[in-house]
Amino acid sequence: MRINRLNDLYSSKKFNFWSGLVLIGVFLLSSCHDEKVTEPIADPSKPLELLDVSYGSFDRQKMDVFLPANRSTQNTRVLIWIHGGAWVDGDKSEFSGFKPWFEAVQSDYAYISLNYRLFDLVTGTNRFPNQEEDIQKALHFIQSKLKEWNVSEQVILAGGSAGGHLSLLHSYKNNNAGMVKLAVAIFPPTDLLTLGNGNNLIEFLLSRLVGDPQRDRERYLASSPINFIDAGSVPTAFFHGDQDDIVPIAQSFKLEEKLRENAVPKFFEYYPGQGHGFTERIYKEMIQKIEDFINQHL
């Protein structure tokens, strides 16, 4: 069963070197075998899947778009998902595992799942902020398509782990046009300077991805979401397990503190005994709480 595989991947300690770098490690192959659609169909009364839509010239700059039947520019919210994988791995197909759970509690939503360029540890290509730039480019493309897709401007940006980091970073730092109305993050890195916290593997990854934390301190500051929170930041929901040994829960404590200092609307929950990945029951409960928070603020 795919869900069991998801939780096995999160909880397994028997990682090889590459998978040890993966913060989420959730790779679900889409079970959808519908024919790929390259041009939107005008009839908004019918559901539509647009797969591997390009938002840039690089191969990884693609997205999957799922438009509901009877969508409208007045009522159809848009939830954009950014996958995890330590910025070095992962795929937009990750959302296929979460999509049914969102659909179970949400109605009249369009869903978009993004790919972005991945950092290559061997060659050193696609260092940060390439990933940040791709999210900016993808969001700009999506904004240009909202009317054509016949969906609203109520956009929620969400993701887990590295995807949560990118969701928060864009929402606080690069949301100048106000496109993103609410942010959601699951066990997100929020302060890259303290993320490693003695974890040699994470510190090695960050040293290659971002740079030396002493020499390149400004790059770390510019890549950390908590440094861009102010009183105008979007409402934020976030979740973390207190046994997370990949992204320490202290990362969410820092986020909570900054949001509180700036009186930003927030909802958060910390799960005792949960690590870098939750049980199916908790994921489903969490998604219901996300929807309640969305309804409260949008």
From TrEMBL:
InterPro entries hit by this protein: AB_hydrolase_fold, BD-FAE-like_dom, GDXG_lipolytic_enzyme
Where would I find the BD-FAE-like domain in this sequence? 63-259
Spell out the molecular function terms from Gene Ontology. hydrolase activity
A Pfam family annotated for this chain is BD-FAE
**Gene3D superfamilies xrefs:** alpha/beta hydrolase (3.40.50.1820)
Keyword field: Hydrolase
| Name this protein carries in UniProt | Putative esterase
Tell me which species this is from: Cecembia lonarensis (strain CCUG 58316 / KCTC 22772 / LW9)
